[in-house]
Specification:
Elements lengths: L1 E4 L2 E4 L3 H7 L6 H30 L9 H22 L5 H7 L7
Antiparallel strand pairs: 1-2
Helix pairs in contact: 2-3
């Protein structure tokens, strides 16, 4: 279905309908995992923004809302993203397979 927005043609796409019509179009689990990871990243960004505002407005005495807390939240976010990347893609990378000599990793 094509609509015109600001005199530009825009085609509306329903991912759910595309996945129903053609199951090979996209992996359902991958799509849900992507949406979940984006929501998790937004949640971490909101936490970081709130703690940055608290840190700017006051001089916190607790470690979780001070500079160490900002580092803690960012390290937690980085660890979760790296871990999901490793188990999702990098685990079966050819370089990793050659170094670890694990032939049955991706089977």
């Amino acid at each position: 279905m094509t609509k015109r927005i600001l005199s530009y043609p825009v085609t509306l796409i329903s991912v759910i309908e595309l996945m129903r019509e053609d199951p090979n179009y996209m992996s359902n689990g991958l799509w849900i995992a992507t949406i979940g990871c984006v929501c998790l990243a937004i949640l971490f960004a909101v936490f970081a923004a709130v703690f940055a505002l608290v840190n700017t407005a006051t001089t916190p005495v607790e470690a979780i809302t001070g500079i160490p807390g900002l580092y803690l939240w960012n390290i937690c976010a980085r660890k979760s993203i790296r871990q999901s990347q490793f188990f999702g893609r990098l685990k079966c990378d050819l370089v990793y397979l050659r170094l670890a000599k694990l032939d049955s990793c991706c089977s």
